[in-house]
Amino acid sequence: MEILRTIDEVRRTCNALKRGDRTLGLVPTMGALHVGHLSLVRAAKASCDAVAATIFVNPTQFGPNEDFAAYPRTFEQDCAMLEREGVDVLFAPAREEMYPAGAETFVDIPMVGGRLDGASRPGHFRGVATVVAKLFNIFQPTCAFFGQKDAAQVAVLRTMVRDLNFDVEMVVCPTVREVDGLAMSSRNRYLSAEEREQALVLERALRRVERVVAEGERDSDRLRGELRRELEDAAGVRLDYAEIVDARSLEPVSDVGDGVLVAVAAWVGKTRLIDNVVIGAEDAR
Ligand code: AMP
Fold first, then answer.
1. Are 175 and 36 spatial neighbours (Cβ–Cβ below 8 Å)?
2. Which of 173, 202, 234 delimits the end of a domain?
3. d(Cα 49, Cα 100) in Å, to the nearest integer?
4. Is-contact 188 269, C-beta < 8 A?
5. Backbone angles phi, psi at 216, to 5 degrees
6. What is the pLDDT of residue 26?
7. Catalytic position from the list 34, 37, 121, 272
8. What is the pLDDT of residues 52-80, one digit of tens each?
9. 33 assigned to some structural domain
10. In this structure, which long-range contacts are made by residues 19-22, counting pairs with CB atoms below 8 Å and at least 24 apart in sequence?
11. Which domain holds residue 229?
12. pTM of the model
């Protein structure tokens, strides 16, 4: 695996990798890798001739009081994991390589990017869309792989790809969970043993909604009400949002059916966790 630090090196290497109509899959990450990330790499390996991953803790997607400085950085371990998966190229740029002095252009997706996490974390999706647009321009991948765990991010990036005519196929991979149901996340390592237990209510509450819908309930107000109550009543958990929305527009729906996104965000201690299910879809356990 080649570890590259500059955009010039990436362009040169990717041009060679894509020669003769070979396809390139891109897996953008912020590192602190776990099996959820590796599932994206495996999907990319399965469908593309060459695979590139990126590790960049993107400062523009963190708010001023968020965990940018504390975000886990486990670079050596990440490299070993990606190498084992057969990744061809890892791009791990310094902040100045991605945002040199004077950089002032951003990609803003105000409607979709202002919902769910975009409402709770103003500016978050502006940072995400900007860095992903830059990575798309740098790599010009055939396909890019993202996790369903970040469902709002998927909706925002799909909107960006459509609106800015990126010639990149978005591939969304199922949420990978721990055996007890907790969605894998780099931030899970912030949780104490007690918080780790308390965090299980997110998945439990989402599964309950799935079951109640399967039994015939369609009224989103009622379902949302029950979902919020369960999370609000849970010990050690502070609800941020619990919404039932259209998976593409992230707008609330009144009638719940297949393809509808049920998404939650909650604080467990000082850690903000997100999770979601799509009604009628299976996820990876
Ligand atoms: P991050 O490093 O948190 O920015 O995540 C990089 C990519 O991995 C994003 O596309 C995430 O949606 C995806 N990802 C993170 N956690 C999981 C998970 N548990 N299952 C599937 N994909 C995930």
1. yes
2. 173
3. 32
4. no
5. 120, -10
6. 98
7. 37
8. 999 999 999 999 999 999 999 999 999 99
9. yes
10. 22/49, 22/50
11. 186-278
12. 0.98
